Amino acid sequence: MRGRGWLTVLAGVLALALVAVGCGGSGDSETAVAESSISKAQYVKKAEAVCEKGTEELEADFAALVREKENVKKPSESDYLDLLEKVVAPNISAEVEELREIDVPEGDASTVEAMLSARTESLSIAEGEPKSLIENSKKVFGKASKLASEYGLKACATR
Question: Range of 123's domain?
Answer without folding.
Answer: 5-157
